[in-house]
Amino acid sequence: DAGVTQSPTHLIKTRGQHVTLRCSPISGHKSVSWYQQVLGQGPQFIFQYYEKEERGRGNFPDRFSARQFPNYSSELNVNALLLGDSALYLCASNTAGTEAFFGQGTRLTVV
Amino acid sequence: DAKTTQPPSMDCAEGRAANLPCNHSTISGNEYVYWYRQIHSQGPQYIIHGLKNNETNEMASLIITEDRKSSTLILPHATLRDTAVYYCIVRVQTGTASKLTFGTGTRLQVTL
After folding, report:
1. What mean pLDDT is predicted for residues B67-73?
2. How far apart are CA B31 and CA B91, in angstroms?
3. Which of A76, B9, B13, B111 is the most buried (most CB within 10 A)?
4. Rounded distance, CA B21 to CA A105, Å?
5. Are the Cβ atoms of A42 and B45 closer than 8 angstroms?
6. Contact at 8 Å (CB) between A107 and A11?
7. Helix, strand, coil: what percent of chain A each, to 5?
8. For all residues of chain B together, what is the average pLDDT?
9. Which of A12-16, A46-50, B38-42 has the highest mean pLDDT?
């Protein structure tokens, strides 16, 4: 069975640009969550979507947004990129009340 | 979600049991203890979770104290491939909420 898949795996962007990261959950999982992990720290929660509705939001600026599609895949968008947005962006999926399964992440470098 | 405290690093000889402690003294009655690990630059991997009884699966065992204020993850026969950062997380397992609050974890180094 396919796990959580994220694309792209690596990305380099310039300050001020916009980026879109994509996530496909495990088949049958209706919840997708996004996390940011900067070097040396644990992942930090950004968003959770369930059945296309936002169910949770972490302490991130409005430059960060996300959405979930009818097939439960999801996109994370970040506008006006800053150097500090350089991180590993992780997507996780789960069904209600179960453990979350993570993808391998997208490594974003902002230069 | 309750806060957890873990030692920043631990060493373990290959073939020995690795015992990773976690304190969660403010855990609520409906919060579960979850363990994940993250091998360098990969996504976190689910290991095990429990509420109050000890749990065992093919990867590890989870021992939760009777007062639920602390727990220990046990890797019975550690291998080099178990070298990773291990995260202890407590969270409510209800409905559609799935936020995980990660700390800085314990960096386990398994050596020959």
Report:
1. 96
2. 5
3. A76
4. 27
5. no
6. yes
7. 5, 50, 45
8. 92
9. A12-16
